[in-house]
Protein: ABC transmembrane type-1 domain-containing protein
Amino acid sequence: MLAALSVFKVCGSTMVYYYAGLKSIPTHLYEAAKMDGASGWTIFWRITFVLLLPIHFYVAIFTTIGSFQIFDSAYLLTSGGPNYATMTIVYYLYQEGFVGLRMGYASTLAYVLFFIVLALSLVQRKFMGKDLQY
Structure:
């Protein structure tokens, strides 16, 4: 349930990013591909998908960061869920820091969360963050 709500929350902004990316692709590339006899799939995979790689990278980074920061849904809907089923790391950080008053442990958890997100972002940059020259 939390995953479905998170997808619903992110879907609108993601579509705006992709719409802006699609509008930034020069139309003369599509015209040249059609004149060369390229099919719809070829145009999509060779022009649209490739030129949207920076948008794919941006969306992947921000949705990954956002997925680690889910707090409000877990807090409002389930309060950690039955038997900790919907306990997220940020909700656990809140529980330890503000409910249990263990601020040192909560700040350590925040640093661990930071380094996890940083490592995942660097891995995504290595595989998706290619500079495009066009």
